[in-house]
Design brief:
Strands 1-2-3-4-5-6-7-8 form an eight-stranded antiparallel barrel. It has a single domain, classed as Avidin-like (Lipocalin). It contains one helix and eight strands. The protein is globular, with a radius of gyration of 20 Å. It starts with a helix and ends in a 6-residue tail after the last strand. With 149 residues, it is mainly beta. The structure holds biotin.
Length: 149
């Protein structure tokens, strides 16, 4: 009887673990990051290509911030449940470009999280200023809660 109970316990733990691993991280939807920036990723096609809109909460410039387009790829060669991806944001309100690269994870609680690194290339007029034109950082994105209307 004790053996049977232990077997059932191990079986149910294995099923829970398998269930967690099987939960797929999906890029489509509305996300917010640790700076308060938001983005929407629209449909991902069968080649992994996607586009969307990025609304940054901060800027290296003093220009008025407006939403900007993003374009990227999700890697889908291995049909991973936690895919890698990259996207570029072409800022509408400045002459800079940011590239993000990251991975879509499902955490221990089953919550999706995008762990990213970015490179922001700012425009400089002179090649002698090239050394200070690129900044680097990380952002963590989680799903935006549904908005009340
Ligand atoms: C600019 O300042 O020229 C464009 C806006 C840059 C915003 C950066 S991109 C990396 C970081 N993550 C964000 O959500 N916003 C900043």
């Amino acid at each position: 009887m004790v053996q049977m109970t232990s077997f059932l316990l191990v079986l149910s733990l294995a099923l829970v673990a398998a269930g967690q691993a099987a939960r797929k991280c999906v890029l489509i939807g509305n996300w917010t990051n640790d700076l308060g920036s938001t983005m929407e990723i629209k449909a991902v096609n069968e080649e992994g290509s996607f586009n969307g809109t990025y609304n940054t909460s901060v800027s290296a410039t003093s220009n008025k911030i407006v939403p900007s387009p993003l374009q990227g790829y999700q890697n889908c060669k291995k049909e991973s449940s936690q895919p890698t991806f990259g996207f570029t944001v072409n800022w509408n309100f400045s002459d800079s470009i940011t590239v993000f690269t990251g991975q879509c994870f499902v955490d221990k609680k089953g919550k999706e999280v995008l762990k990213t690194m970015w490179l922001l290339r700012s425009h400089v007029d002179n090649i002698t200023d090239d050394w200070k034109a690129t900044s680097v950082g990380t952002n963590i994105f989680t799903r935006r809660l549904p908005q009340k209307v």
